[in-house]
Amino acid sequence: MLKRIPFWFTYVFLWVPILVVVAMSFNAGDSPYSWGGFGLNWYGELAGDQEIRTGLVNTLIVAAGSTAIATVLGTLLAVGLARHTRSKVLDAIATLPVILPDIVMAIGLLAFYSLIQLTLGLYSVLLAHAVFGTAAVAAVVRTRLTVSDPALEEASRDLGANGLTTFLRITLPTLAPGIVAGALLAFTLSVDEFVIAFFTAGPQSPTLPIVIYSMVRFGVTPEINALATVLLAVTFTAILAVQRLTRLTERR
Amino acid sequence: MKAKLERITLLGPGLGYLTALMVVPLALVLSYTIFQRGRFGGLVYEPTTENFRRAVDPLYLDVLVTSAWIAGVTTLLALLIGYPTAYVIARLPARAKTIALVALVLPFWTNFLIRTYAWIVLLSPAGLVNDALTGWGLVDEPLQLLYTKPAIIAGLLYSYLPLMVLPLYASLEKQDHELLEAAANLGARPARAFLTVTLPLTLPAMLTGCVFVFVPSLGNFVVPELLGGGRTAMVGNLVRDQFLKARDWPFGATLALAVVAMLAVLLLIQAWSGRRLQGADRA
């Protein structure tokens, strides 16, 4: 039993702060700390918050756009790296966005955008998020490639199919679960990303994390508790849905 | 010829994109470190070593050391808590294992800023921790918990602990139980078997976990700002301020380079120990 203390500590440590925030979101009082009776008023406040709504829409646009770019580029890159090169340098370039600290990437992009005199807006964040998105998709698809059999592709070619047909009818379908998983990862990373967005978003186009940041910095308000609870519920549902989906596809 | 065309179509777009929006920006930051700041922000393209001299000024060196120290303590704590946690998870029955893993990553998928915010709610003078302490009569006055170094470490640990547990879990999970049985049959006690068999085999995963925790901790500026209250600046705060407030991009770039240099050392150690272990495998 003694051996399990760190195990239980980890879970208490990870969950108590979140549960406190969730509990406090149903607080009718004005304080984010002390209980003033049950109420849903902070959810009402949240629903009417124009800034949060703008941030949410911006975040979804950025996540959808960058995921679309990342899925195409990352999938091609994964196949290319696995089947057509042994170069360590190319390999390093494809994994660099994953290990590079976000602040280094952020200042690099800011410097680059200012050099080419690109006005910062929503698209500058979108293009930036596609960078680590591409690396994430490529990494996930590559793990899938290592278990798929190159002999299938060779057979397809031997039977007279050209490169494109082979790619579309053999390679892509076998990689599909990996591509979906990679795209989901890229989307999640983008929705949660703050530092790069903070440096590369125009003043008129804050993403949701930027809105939350300015709220938290301005002062603690119970509205954030309500927002946290909503985000948690969405994440939880999404994870359950993905699990159900993977179980269904595995059974087929 | 055809193979070459295929290679270009597959590799070209992705590598082109990463080159334009990552390699070039990084080269740009690197080149900034030898230039000077213009009088009204901007850059003067005259080479100088001034930025490097300023970075080792005690004032800034102190911040660099403090940042490395905070990130290091966070990583060490994550390892000490994360290893036994991963060990227990890896030995749970299948269904409990799934639940434990989901419960581990779920907090990780809520927004990073909200995870940090939760600690403000907990640690503030009127917060839950102080309520409990005064309520139980352990302290008379609420303690100053927020805006301290331990608060920063708690926030960082909270955000990145799962990144330590997951690689360790993956490594412990696929470990060959027959090796431990063999050790036991040969008379090794559990503690000795753990130290001579399990621990060395999980060393690469330990290092991976350490990199996963240390890297985002070192360059972090949100946690020190929100939980450290600006009293303890970390190098991330300096970089942010140089770029967005002081508009001294060359000096900001130099500080960022210091962060990258520290990480490069860590990655080299990781690669070296990984290779050494592989060598030992073959022998």
Question: How would you describe what is shown here?
Answer:
The complex is a heterodimer of chains A (252) and B (283). Chain A has 252 residues and is an all-alpha fold. Chain A has a domain at 52-219: MetI-like fold (Orthogonal Bundle). Helices cover 79% and strands 0% of the residues of chain A. Chain A is built from 11 helices and no strands. Helix content of chain B is 76%, strand content 1%. Chain B starts with a helix and ends with a helix. With 283 residues, chain B is mostly helical. In chain B, helix 7 packs across helix 11 (222-228). At the A-B interface, helix 1, helix 3, helix 4, helix 5 and helix 6 of A face helix 1, helix 3, helix 4, helix 5 and helix 7 of B.
Largest sheet of chain A: none
Percent strand of chain A: under 5%
How many DSSP-defined strands of chain A? 0
Roughly what is the average pLDDT of chain A, rounded to an integer?
85
The CATH class of the domain at 77-230 in chain B, by name, is Mainly Alpha
Class by SSE composition of chain B: mainly alpha
Strand content of chain B: under 5%
CATH architecture of the domain at 77-230 in chain B: Orthogonal Bundle
End-to-end gap of chain B: 42 Å
Low-confidence stretches of chain A: none
- What is the CATH class name of the domain at 52-219 in chain A? Mainly Alpha
User: What is the 3D form of chain A?
Assistant: globular
Keywords (chain A): Cell membrane, Membrane, Transmembrane, Transmembrane helix, Transport
Family (chain A): Belongs to the binding-protein-dependent transport system permease family. CysTW subfamily.
Membrane topology (chain A): Multi-pass membrane protein
Main location (chain A): membrane
Summarize the structure.
The complex is a heterodimer of chains A (252) and B (283). Chain A is mainly α and 252 residues long.
